[in-house]
Amino acid sequence: MPLLDLDKITTGVSKTWEGFLRDWDRSLRAGNYPETTRYNYLLAAAQLARYLNENATPDLEADDAAEDPTEVTRAHVEAFQGWMIETRSASTALNKHKGLQQFFKWLMLDEEEIDRSPMERVRQPKTVKKLIPVIRDDDTRKVLAACKGKAFLQLRDEAIIRLYYNTGARLSEVGNLTVEDIDLVTDSVHYHGKGSRDRRVRFGPKTARAVSRYLRVRAKRKGAELPDLWLADRGGKRLAPNGIKIMIKRRGLSAGVKGVHAHRWRHNFAHEWKRAGGDSGDLMLLMGWVSEDMPRHYGASAAAERAQETHQRMGIGENV
């Protein structure tokens, strides 16, 4: 099932809101926006519409805005943003803020339905930057041990986990791989990154062996003719990224390691790269980043450890 189901997203919104959202999605598709981006943008706008219809207080006078997005005001957005902070989190509210910025920008510039965006003076929610801890080799070893064996699921899960560990890829990048994206001649994988930015990343012998073993057993499974690399246990269907997310968490728990998810290996990759003295520009290419802020952000939770190791190696204050 695709991530983006417009019928489901627009449940509970007015016909006018639904029409605008469908037109906006058409515009986003024409702009080649990734499905995950389209989903997050459309969901933010639909959630605002439902809030104005179901949760807004009477003093907000939101009846017209609940029917038509061109009637939305700054006060409506700020109330929605505050509600999001209270019921979800500041980081979630920030994501909604960014999505709504794009929606009302489209209404103003592309559709010329409004003269000014209600987002014009709405402040972004302040968030506390959480440091995601890297996952240590010992913990990864435990998770991989939980996959040990020659059964289909064991071979599949080890191959998936080794790709995250060895290449630092995003959850969706590994999750959406096709069989053709794997090249066992060059031991490399073709990732389709955010913003249609593709890249090829090499992987090591252990990962190559794990992927090769999985491909051999995959060839004998129902659904082997599918282009998708990862197959579900039953039914000959693809294993979607969300299924991989659940699998990783389950494997972590069975290994006695809490909080295991794909992004922790991404942070670990950045940490180990910096620890080895790797170039930040090369890291950006491997990770599929365009912002120079990203190398500083990833692996930040272990930055103090790297600094202490460098300090010890340099021997400052030990010369007298």
How far from one another are the termini? Answer: 68 Å
Count of helical regions: 15
Give the total of domains: 2
What's the CATH class label of the largest domain?
A: Mainly Alpha
What is the strand content?
A: under 5%
Helix content: 55-70%
Radius of gyration: 23 Å
Query: Which CATH architecture of the largest domain is right?
Result: Orthogonal Bundle
If you average the pLDDT, what whole number results? 92
Strand order across the largest sheet? 1-2-3
Main beta sheet strand tally, sense and closure: 3 strands, antiparallel
- Helix and strand content put the structural class at mainly alpha
Stated plainly, the CATH topology of the largest domain is called: hpI Integrase, Chain A
Summarize the structure.
By secondary structure, the protein is mainly alpha-helical. Helix content is 55%, strand content 4%. It holds the Pfam family Phage_int_SAM_4.
Tell me about this structure.
With 320 residues, this protein is mostly helical. The protein has two domains: 6-110, no CATH class; 137-311, Intergrase catalytic core (hpI Integrase, Chain A), CATH 1.10.443.10. 55% of the residues lie in helices and 4% in strands. The protein has helices spanning 6-9, 15-30, 35-54, 63-67, 74-87, 90-110, 137-145, 152-167, 171-175, 205-218, 241-254, 262-275, 280-287, 294-297, 303-314; strands at 182-183, 188-192, 198-202. The chain has a three-stranded antiparallel sheet with strand order 1-2-3, with no helix packed on it. A hairpin with a 4-residue loop joins strand 1 and strand 2 (188-192). The protein is globular. The N and C termini lie far apart (68 Å). The mean pLDDT is 92. Pfam families: Phage_int_SAM_4 (PF13495), Phage_integrase (PF00589).
